[in-house]
Amino acid sequence: MSSTVLPFSSPWLSLNVCLCVSPAEFMPILGTNLNPEFISVCNNATWAIGEICMQMGVEMQPYVSLVLNQLVEIINRPNTPKTLLENTAITIGRLGYVCPQEVSPMLQQFIRPW
């Protein structure tokens, strides 16, 4: 099992910490938390996925399929709170930035005409 070192910093702490974690362990947990019925939990999981994918880059590729369909469902869901929509859009964009081959086939499901 490989680990990825993710830098972690907090505006409340005066130190930086590196977390050694295995994406195979935490990405399924984050995917499970993409339930818009629990807005705060879903919003946090969405935000975390976006942050993690920017740190992992192309190494995020095996995990895109775990979360992308749920993110697309959230962004297309009626009456989704604005903050969750914003984080979902940013996270989908970040996934598309680091793994365009995995995200581009889904464009028609979430892109809207100008």
Automatic annotation (TrEMBL):
Any one Gene Ontology cellular component term annotated for this protein: cytoplasm
Highest taxon listed in the record's lineage: Eukaryota
Entry's localization field: Cytoplasm
Main localization category: cytoplasm
Protein name as it appears in the record: Importin N-terminal domain-containing protein
Keyword Repeat: yes
Species of provenance: Hucho hucho
Coiled coil start-end: none
Keywords: Cytoplasm, Protein transport, Repeat, Transport
An annotated GO BP: protein import into nucleus
UniProt-listed SUPFAM superfamilies: ARM repeat
Presence of keyword Cell wall biogenesis/degradation: no
PANTHER family per UniProt: IMPORTIN BETA (PTHR10527)
